[in-house]
């Protein structure tokens, strides 16, 4: 991957080059280490670094970038790091921003779990591990409820219910792989929304149709 | 979607391929950032490849919530390392962030036009109920195995206590998890 991306960044060598990489590194390491609770909670911290502190972009650009990043799957924080890093310093900038953002917490994770598991046979550690599972159960249940509440807000109680029951049947009763279920739902949503636009607009908006094909 | 080799020990190259594939699939399908990828990672890591038990996955999730930083990369880095060493961790991280990072960069010139498209809105919405069901099933599994392990008194104390602390008193999840570790160390070390 690095080899393929290298030539793109070679054009942006300058006197302030190292300084910019260092800023990217510090800015994204800081957001990676201080942001608790996963991607979405880190967004305000990234905005602080990118807009207020280092002025890599203005608030409007940041909003646009966030909206764009949300249209793609995958972790949100690393998509932001990729785009902002690329904007500041090309492909190498993107790489620096992502690595600075994820590396400290990934290594800390290995150290912490390694430490816990090296006392795997101790009754105290066994008790600790047991004590945490109800909390994880509650956190997942709350998260599930939040996703339901979100979709109730955007698609209404009736459709949320229909989609959730359908998803449950496909996942738990027919035991389809979640990837296939999500693929089905995504293509269904794409076809229905395209049909809706076509029906509403007729063939009057060629730009929109072109966009649909690119999607 | 199905790849051959349920949990069986393949050649080293196959294992690296499986690591990459597992995290690639989970993150590609996880619309809506980190939390929505949790049940998808669990499906690949526990159900499909059998790299860890549901219980170990729970420990992993707990520790990932104690530490700062993006949740998907912490999970990916650790599982990749456990299964395939440093190279495994690198591959899992690449699979987690690579595709979406490259897509963002490629799209950035013209994708601003997409963000209000009805297709994108509907596609994002259609996935939310699926994620909700996956998360609910996982929550049920964790609570059930906790019940079998510690009985209903500890389960209700820990479950209701942590719900009250996180959702009513708005105490940070990391603090609640650390508190539950202490509770378990003191009161559950006999099981």
From TrEMBL, chain A:
It comes from the Bacteria. Keywords: Cell membrane, Membrane, Transmembrane, Transmembrane helix. Pfam families: Chromate_transp. It is a multi-pass membrane protein. It is found in: Cell membrane. InterPro entries: CHR_Transporter, Chromate_transpt. Belongs to the chromate ion transporter (CHR) (TC 2.A.51) family. This is Chromate transporter.
TrEMBL record, chain B:
InterPro entries: CHR_Transporter, Chromate_transpt. Keywords: Cell membrane, Membrane, Transmembrane, Transmembrane helix. This is Chromate transporter. Belongs to the chromate ion transporter (CHR) (TC 2.A.51) family. It comes from Fictibacillus solisalsi. The chain crosses the membrane at residues 12-31, 85-110, 122-144, 173-190. It is found in: Cell membrane. One of its GO terms (molecular function) is chromate transmembrane transporter activity. GO terms for cellular component: plasma membrane. Pfam families: Chromate_transp. It is a multi-pass membrane protein.
